[in-house]
Request: fold
Amino acid sequence: MLGVLLSIFASLLIGTSATMQKYSLRRIRKFRFRRIFSNRLWIISILIGASGTLMYLFAMRLSPIHIVQPIIAVSMLIPVILGNILFGEKIGNRWFHIIIIFIGVWLISV
Amino acid sequence: MNFQAAFNAGIALGLSGLFVRIGTTGIPLDIAFLITFFMNPFSFFAALFGIYGLVYLQIALYKNEITFVVPLVSALSVATPIILAAIFLKEYVPAMKWFGLLLILIGTVGMTRDGKKSLLGAIAMKLRKR
Reply:
């Protein structure tokens, strides 16, 4: 049970981290690593992603891999949904391929 | 869409995941888990590829839309360790996983072609028109 909870939290954290990274990168006019590394929001997003990865590692130890991996696969959809809502990115025909990729990732994870 | 950076990020993160998997196999979960993990030589390669993947992920996220980058990177990072483990570690891959890899391949190719010229893109467009 704890492994499942940890994997749900890990999935949420990893998904949110990617969205926050995109949000912080959108605010940078010119791509320079010095600017990125000095961006507080970007550092927080990396820390969130790292904590999510650590939770994932511990979840793998507490629960069987066939339970943890499909939950982690959901983390792929979180940035897609948030990107559509927050950044107004048009998914268009891409949704079809996103679903196919998600099913593929899920099948591998099970 | 510039998919080269996303492609590099996906492959690098997949390799990192493969080394993490090799490094964590057989390590018990206790207080010394993280110390044992970071002392493992495989963790060095995992960290190396992880940083490489992270840098390319930032470039990909900066240049492209997140709805394009994240599914592509996730797909490649999941598929890479399985293909490499099947080839180099001679791990058995069941038919369901091969089917999953095939779906990932179809989806990835469709994404990189932006869904306009691919067969699946055409089907998706027809479905949308309905």
The radius of gyration of chain B is 17 Å. The helical segments of chain B are 4-24, 33-39, 41-63, 66-88, 95-112, 119-129. The mean pLDDT of chain B is 80.
